[in-house]
Write a structure and sequence with these properties.
Blueprint lengths: L7 H6 L20 H10 L2 H6 L1 H14 L5 E2 L6 H8 L1 E4 L3 E4 L6 H6 L5 H4 L1 H14 L5 E6 L1 H10 L7 H9 L1 H25 L3 E6 L7 H18 L3 E2 L2 E2 L2 E5 L6 H5 L5 E3 L6 H8 L4 E6 L8 H15 L5 E5 L9 H15 L5
Parallel strand pairs: 1-4, 4-5, 5-8, 8-9, 9-10, 10-11
Antiparallel strand pairs: 2-3, 6-7
The structure holds coproporphyrinogen III (CP3).
Length: about 350
């Protein structure tokens, strides 16, 4: 078992005492860092960067060199899973992710291959073990996957979407077809996260970025249920330590009680739900992660510090809070502003821990 030099993040997820509140940022490795843009240039395409274990490790560590972060997150993308299923992921500049093939009929769902993740996504597991080696116990490494529902939105729509018209037509018109797709994805995601854990991921996060687009009954039936299925299949202890699972449904504030019932260790919150309210509702069952509005990083460093202080105060005394953004960092944020946030969280949070 590796000795962790900084285990605040894992301690907060287990709601054990910490000296200060741990902090990391969703999308902490990315285009807002000039050194990321340089490595990305050197690699070629975004997927070339994901497939190169040495370079993926390099960009994972870049934000840790600049900021006093309490966790590293694997550099990869949620869309590697549908890509491995043969859909052909590519990125059109300025337009976000796209797939060459879509999945819209029952026949197309049935034709999707069952993944052998250790082979089909071997480059991800190589990146995980390379990063673990290079981190050398500095901070824990987070692995991740998209939720079945969120992955399905990209597969059915063929890319990013605002209205989700194709997948919602499937949801309301051919629910059995959508269930077959989600069940296939839940199996693939379970295998994928377990492979990341075996390769060295010390916590995992499920990104349900589009769960918030659903009605309450549709969320329960088409998103939460499959995340719960995944939770039941995950390795929960590895290398003599618990492997905590964080569920993040963007826009899921109204469903926290149901999310806490899945057996997840922590829930990610966006900025539309107050920490204090969330803690009162579910804080006795799970840790909470969040929930700084990423756009508030465009404020002055003094404004950023004040907003960080407000969120720490909203959570209040004691452990169980992992400070994070409520969604990914924007590519136009000045890196000094990210540093102001990380430093403020550590400086201002000591008084909430005895
Ligand atoms: O957090 C991290 O630092 C780890 C890396 C990470 C990336 N994507 C790198 C990335 C993680 C955890 C993701 C998850 C991801 N990817 C999600 C879930 C989180 C969320 O934002 O809701 C989603 C929906 C995706 C799909 C995706 N991939 C999008 C929407 C984009 C952006 C497209 C664009 O042009 O803005 C990507 C590409 C991507 N993934 C980039 C990075 C750093 C930018 C690609 C580049 O370098 O050009």
């Amino acid at each position: 078992m590796t000795v962790l030099k900084n285990d605040r993040f894992l301690r907060a997820l287990a709601r054990q005492p910490v000296d200060v509140t741990p902090v990391w940022m969703m999308r902490q490795a990315g285009r807002y860092l000039p050194e990321y843009r340089a490595t990305r240039e050197q690699a070629g395409s975004f997927m070339d960067l994901c497939r190169n274990a040495e370079l993926a490790c390099e960009v994972t560590l870049q934000p840790l060199e600049r900021f006093d972060l309490d966790a590293a997150i694997l550099f990869s993308d949620i869309l590697t899973v549908p890509d491995a299923m043969g859909l052909g992921l590519y990125f059109e500049t300025g337009e976000g992710p796209k797939f060459r093939k879509t999945v819209r009929t029952e026949a197309e769902v049935q034709a999707l291959p069952e993944l052998s993740v250790e082979q089909d996504l071997d480059y991800v597991m190589r990146a995980v073990s390379t990063i673990r080696r290079e981190l050398n116990g500095r901070v824990p490494l987070i692995g991740f996957s998209g939720s079945p529902w969120t992955l399905a939105t990209y597969m059915v729509e063929g890319g990013s979407s605002r209205e989700f018209s194709h997948i919602k037509s499937m949801l309301y018109g051919q629910p059995d077809t959508l269930h077959q797709l989600l069940d296939k994805l839940a199996h693939a995601v379970t295998d994928y996260l377990n492979a990341q854990i075996r390769a060295g991921a010390q916590a995992v996060q499920i990104f349900d970025s589009w769960g918030g687009a659903l009605s309450t009954p549709a969320y329960m039936e088409f998103s939460l249920r499959y995340m719960e299925q995944i939770l039941h299949g995950l390795i929960r202890e590895h290398e003599g330590r618990q492997v905590p699972v964080i569920l993040f449904t963007k826009g899921g504030g109204q469903w926290l009680e149901a999310m806490a019932s899945t057996g997840a260790d922590a829930l990610g919150l966006d900025w539309t739900t107050e920490m204090q309210e969330a803690r009162a509702r579910v804080g006795h069952r799970v840790a909470l992660q969040g929930n700084f509005d990423p756009s508030a990083l465009f404020a002055t460093p003094a404004g950023i510090r004040a907003e960080a202080g407000r969120i720490l105060d909203s959570f209040g005394m004691g452990s169980g809070h992992v400070f994070n953004l409520g969604h990914g960092i924007n590519q136009h944020v000045p890196p000094e502003h990210a540093k102001a946030l990380i430093d403020a969280v550590h400086e201002l949070s000591a008084r909430y821990h005895d």
